[in-house]
Design a protein that fits this description.
single chain, five-stranded mixed beta sheet, alpha/beta, 370 residues, 40% helix
Length: 370
């Protein structure tokens, strides 16, 4: 954004203060705070971890959170927690999950990079830590092939993103700037019209013709393709090694300090889940979809599920360097003041688990807690 656009920037920052701006808008599957723990098998005759009756886990009902979906559906979390009950809440947006973490309604959560950044910076580095990775990829620019035949045709068109300042919104604004086009980040007006549209209604907006395309996560991207859209760009192609963080694991600092054994148990379950997902992709896809059906009342059809699943990579590595880059993109777009991310990561317990599993440890890119 041009440096002389101070008034729109101030308006944009005001929006950040009013609504946790850097939030990963969910795909609309699940509810803001649905608590569903049906079928959990709690170990009997065993001690509770850290004396806890339960560990409260939050996640979004979409495929980029499949580690949580599969881990819940297949019982990995409950197995590691033993006599401590794994309780779950499903969220539709980053702000509500961060609020739940801050209030103690959840202890650990699966969440996107932007709400993690926002939650950390708004609390002056006191609210949360990122303790592990979960997924990479799963974001695409899908367009109406009758209106947009090449990347240069995006100029002058109406492109949806999930929410002002969310992870995909920041990525699209950065891509637009790299094309040499100008867009006011706050209003979305400029050489491209950025239309902030909830992922729940984006497919309908596409069918009605009110948008010409969308930069969105899975499974919304594949839903658009099922409606006749064409994938014009996979965001993974813009990143080194085609990897970028889309989902992290966060924990409240208070819970991490007071209950490290419980946190370690959840991380061990996450590592085991990712290993199982990568070794059994078809079974894992079915398990994730089954849990989506439990959470939302409706499973995804194969024509949406299959291509969406293929575009997401499941990894324990939080890909910390890419989170730092995403934060810089938000600053460049005028949607975030220079964030202080030192200490946002604490990968101590994750690396302990990985070492025990004979797996390579992962890096915090110099952003670890002291």
């Amino acid at each position: 954004m041009p440096a002389n656009r101070s008034t729109p920037l101030r308006r944009g920052i005001a929006v950040i203060a009013a609504l946790p701006l850097l939030s990963l808008a969910a795909c609309g599957y699940g509810s803001d705070s649905k608590d569903d723990n049906a079928g959990a098998k709690i170990a009997t005759g065993a001690q509770k971890i850290d004396g806890l009756g339960s560990v409260k886990i939050g996640y979004f009902g979409n495929l980029t959170h499949a580690t949580a979906l599969v881990g819940k559906q297949k019982g990995f979390f409950q197995k590691e927690l033993g006599a401590t009950e794994a309780k779950y809440q499903v969220f539709n947006a980053g702000p509500s999950e961060i609020e739940a973490l801050n209030s103690g309604s959840i202890d650990i959560g699966w969440i996107g990079p932007s709400p993690a950044i926002n939650g950390y910076t708004k609390s002056d580095g006191k609210s949360l830590r990122i303790i592990g990775g979960s997924a990479s990829g799963g974001v695409k620019l899908v367009v109406n092939p009758k209106k947009i035949k090449s990347l240069k045709d995006v100029k002058g068109k109406r492109i949806a993103t999930p929410q002002l300042g969310n992870t995909q919104d920041v990525a699209f604004l950065n891509w637009v700037a790299e094309q040499g086009w100008k867009v006011d980040a706050q209003s979305g007006k400029g050489d491209v019209s950025v239309v902030r549209t909830d992922n729940k209604v984006t497919p309908d907006a596409y069918k009605s013709g009110s948008i010409d395309g969308a930069w969105v996560p899975e499974p919304t991207a594949s839903k658009l393709v099922a409606e006749g859209g064409k994938v014009l760009l996979d965001e993974s192609t813009l990143w080194p090694d085609k990897k970028f963080v889309i989902t992290n694991i966060i924990v409240s600092q208070k819970f991490l300090k007071e209950h490290p054994k419980a946190v370690e148990a959840v991380l061990k379950a996450s590592v085991e889940t990712n290993k199982w997902i990568n070794a059994n992709p078809d079974e894992a896809k079915a398990a994730a979809n089954k849990q989506l059906g439990v959470d939302s009342g409706k499973e995804l059809p194969a024509k949406v599920l299959d291509p969406a699943w293929k575009s997401v990579q499941f990894t324990d590595d939080p890909l910390a360097a890419t989170l730092d880059t995403e934060a810089k993109h938000a600053v460049k777009a005028g949607l975030l003041e220079n964030p202080k991310l030192d200490g946002i990561y604490d990968l101590t317990l994750l690396n302990k688990v990985l070492k025990a599993e004979g797996e390579p440890t992962v890096s915090d890119a110099g952003l670890g807690a002291a």
